[in-house]
Structure formats: structure tokens, C-alpha cells
Amino acid sequence: MSLNVDAWNKPDHGALFIVTGASGTGKTTLVKRALSTISNIQFSVSATTRAKRDGETDGKDYHFLERSEFERLKENEALLEWAQVYKNFYGTLREPVLKALRSGESILLEIDQQGASQVKAQMPEAISIFILPPTMASLEKRLRNRNTDSDEIIARRLREAQDQIDHCGSFDYLVINDDLESASDQFMSILIAELLKRNRRDSWVQKFVPNKH
Fold first, then answer.
1. pLDDT tens per residue across span 123-155
2. How far apart, in whole angstroms, are the C-alpha atoms of residue 81 and residue 176?
3. What are the CA-CA distances from residue 91 to residues 43, 83, 129, 169, 204 (Å)?
């Protein structure tokens, strides 16, 4: 299936997409495929207080901030969502997202359920998509096939996965990633359908029906 939205199809106002799924469900692969196929969708670069690692670039991999600066952003409500992971903070900067949306660019956020809930509370119009595994047994198999984690870590990841999945009923769209090609087509179809909605296309209406208001 070949899907594409070319530059001339840029909407009048961009869409904010939230993508959530447990570790091992393949959400990152689906996101990367969509970003390489559909024009005018950007991946949101998160802010973090953790140290920059070798090979990482500020503004591309993360916005690397001092803890005091992150705290200031929190206090000024300049973050759409944030979380503390161990000793470090991670979050989504509000202004870059809003600026992109106003210009017709769409933003894709890949965040966990708690972050998704925070964004939805501030921007109810955001479109939320939850990526599900075929079964919990298949998810466990995927995690074990990685051969990178101990049984203890896998058990923890499965508990965390179930905690995430328990909230899938609050999302706008659900995609079961059983077959990657099929799941990718479904995922991109959701993005494109949302970008073609009437409420993002006033310019098209004016182009073809110029006397209608």
C-alpha cells in the first residue's frame, strides 16, 4: 500500500498526534515509517535534564536542559507534559508544538499513557493512537527474543505494559500490531484521514467554492 501526503496537501492547521504503546509493541517502528512517508509531520523533540550521550545532538535527539531551567518551564506551564524517570526529567515543550501547528505542520508525540493524559487535558483536540500487541503472550515472546533483558526485567516490563494497556480504552484509535505491514498501513491511514478532515481545509473550500462562507 502506497500512501503519501505531498507538500501541496499541507493543512491550514496542523494536527497533534499522540502515539502510545507498551515496550515491545513496535510503536517506534510505526512512527519512523510514517515520518519517512507522510509529508509535513514532525517528530516532537523532548526536553530532558539527563546528560548528553556521545553522538547525540542538542535540538535533534533532545533539548538538553539544566534542572533549574526545566523547573522554571514547569512552573511557567511551558510544558505540555512531563515526567520524572529515575533522577531525570523529561517533557514536551509547549511553544514549538503550537508554532508548528499554526503553520500547518503536524506533530507526532511518542509518549506513555501518563504523558498522553496530560496532553489531552490541555489539548483535547489532540488525536490519540494506542498500539497494541496481538496478545500479552506474544508481547512476552517479543521481549524475550530481544535477548537483552533478564527474567526479572522482562517480568517488570510486562507489568508496566499491562499498566499502560489498561488505559487503551481512553484513546481515539487502536492499532493491533500483529503484522507490521498491515499495522503500518492502518497507522498511516489514521494520520492521513485526520489531515484531510474538513475542519483543516478551509483553503480548499475557498478554492473550489469561493463564494461560500
1. 999 999 999 999 999 989 888 888 778 888 889
2. 26
3. 14, 6, 19, 24, 35
Domain total of the chain: 1
Helix (H, G, I), strand (E, B) or coil at 160: helix
User: ∠ CA 97-40-28 to the nearest 5 degrees?
Assistant: 75
CB neighbours of 134 closer than 8 A, spacing ≥ 6? Answer: 176, 177, 178
Tens digits of residue pLDDT in 148-174: 788 888 898 899 999 999 999 999 999
Which residue range(s) make up the domain with 136?
9-198
Contact 12, 104 (CB under 8 A): yes
pLDDT tens readout for residues 13-30: 999 999 999 888 999 999
Cell 463564494 -> residue? 211
Name the grid cell of 188: 498511516
Beta bridge partners of 18: 109, 128
Residue 210 lies in a domain: no
